[in-house]
Amino acid sequence: MANRRAVLKAALVAGTGAIVAACTGGGEGTRTDGGGQAAESRPVAKLTAQPAVDATEAPVRGPVTVQVSDGSLTDVKLTNADGKPVEGSFNADRTAWTSTETLGYGKTYTYAATANGTDGKPVQLTGTFTTLNPKQQIRVTVNPADNAKVGVAMPVSVKFSDDVTNRAEIEKALTMETSQQVEGSWGWLSARQIDFRPKEYWPANTTVDVGAKLYGIDLGGGSYARADVTTKFTIGRNQVVKIHTPDHVMNVYRDGAKIKSYPCSNGLDSDVDRNTPNGTFIVMTREPHAIFDNARYGYTNVNKKWACRISNHGEYIHENQDNAAAIGRANNSHGCVNLLEADAKDYFDSALIGDPVEITGSRLGGPVNSDVMDWLVSWPAWKAKSAL
């Protein structure tokens, strides 16, 4: 019996120990370490960032965001390599911070963010990330320039300082807003140029707002734009020049009504290479004085007044008082439209860059190698130049 009581007593002692252990063990939210010591519970809040800490080749276009779950942000700092803060703002309940400043290429940025969890415990996020570093940065320009007033045939031209290949993505990033409804299309003229032209001439007095938001977009082969470019300009009055070369007359129309007729001499009829070419051109430049050189035909350094360039093929509308005997009577120029001095000055004063010049009656077709050929192709052919 003594042995049985000893066993029973031992069992009771063991049972009592088990009960004590159950009553004094870790409660809800409490952990024990390996040595049986109590440890604090982890904070419930969780901080995340985009781009993530230690990210490389991070995009520069999208905003940087810092977010917290089960808590609220108390402070967020994002600093650049010079230690200057990047601008940003919190949302209403301070669960997110979003940058409002564009990031630079090939730069390192540093996070320092804190938040308080719903359990009252603070959390932190620190670290760095680096942005993409382009193989090449390409300069982008847009024409017409800000605040310009241009003619109704003026194309919008976006040009690149080097070849680009990612045409569809580039075209998607181009935006246009007009004060009047306009049907038009972008078209690629080369690996360095994309233009927009309307199906018909622009409505007079239209305001045009263009954005080439290309910064941070891969233009192809690891090349990126140096910066976004924008422009806002106005279409002026509707003025169209019409020349039927056999008539030796240059007519000027405003809103469809003829307002001026000037006698002219056009390219020599008997030599197709000297014909003034057929097609719809635009006034590209206005030059009070222009110097003409053509070694093929034996003249250099010829100064003419009131010159409006209408193509990169070499054609101008300009004064040629030296050819007064032929003006209005015969075509004998090297391709330009010759006017008497007073008429050339009168037309020059009325012209805007982008005014259309429609030429018919010649045996020479329009040049197709010019960077201003937008109106020399049909509308279906123009739309086919789009990458979308």
TrEMBL record:
Q: Any transmembrane segments, and where? A: none
| Molecular function terms from GO | acyltransferase activity; peptidoglycan L,D-transpeptidase activity
Biological process, per Gene Ontology: cell wall organization; peptidoglycan-protein cross-linking; regulation of cell shape
State whether keyword Hydrolase applies: no
Key words, A-Z: Acyltransferase, Cell shape, Cell wall biogenesis/degradation, Peptidoglycan synthesis, Signal, Transferase
Signal peptide, first to last residue: 1-21
Active site feature: H318 (proton donor/acceptor), C336 (nucleophile)
Q: Give the UniProt entry's GO cellular component terms.
A: extracellular region
Q: In which pathway does it act?
A: Cell wall biogenesis; peptidoglycan biosynthesis
Q: What is this protein called?
A: L,D-transpeptidase family protein
Q: Which organism is it from?
A: Amycolatopsis pithecellobii
The lineage is: Bacteria, Bacillati, Actinomycetota, Actinomycetes, Pseudonocardiales
